[in-house]
Amino acid sequence: MGELEALNHSFFLLINAGGDTPHWLIQLAIGIAAGLIYLLPVLLLGFWLWGSPGERRLMLKATLVTVIALLANQLIWAIWPHPRPFMMGLGHTWMMHAPDSSFPSDHMTVFACIGFTLLLDGLSGWGLIILLTGLSVAWARVFLGVHFPLDMVGGMVVSLLVYAGFSPVWRRVGQPVTDLAQRCYRNLMAVPIKAGWLRG
Predict the structure, then answer these.
(1) Domain for residue 102, yes or no?
(2) Tag placement on the chain: N or C end, fewer CB within 10 Å?
(3) Which of 155, 160, 66 has the alpha carbon at shortest distance from 120?
(4) For residue 84, what are the contacts with CB-CB under 8 A and spacing of at least 6?
(5) In a domain, 23, yes or no
């Protein structure tokens, strides 16, 4: 573990922005690190409101995989808390963040859960776009000094494990769960659906 941690620190220092980094690059990285994740709920909601039944089922699966993975992250943090770089006095910090556990990264977990689910279950183009966007967010958060590279790897591993474990369950319960969600949606949004603004 000592050698792995040393390698983790070395890669962090290679990526982390130094004191001579241009201001515009720091601001760009902050935008990527903090802002891009908000596009994911917009994407999921858009597919649910205007997508096909199959796409709705996939969006619901991606959401549940993400929730389970984030709960798994909480368990990992409780069992094995790992300090962030700035808590260890390592590198430069360019973004405010709470001094909580860094491993695994929640941001990378969210991007990986949604990206892998879409990539492996039929919307491969969107899945690839989300995964590539997630990698840019991973770079930005290490660049800004709030995460280690292995935090990002950990988020991807947790996502794949949860996806693999949840998929057999979803094959059994996915359709009835989706049907129930769609009935609730159609009751709540009956007026805009009838007006043709949303897909029923």
Answers:
(1) yes
(2) N
(3) 160
(4) 97, 99, 100, 101, 102, 146, 147, 148
(5) no
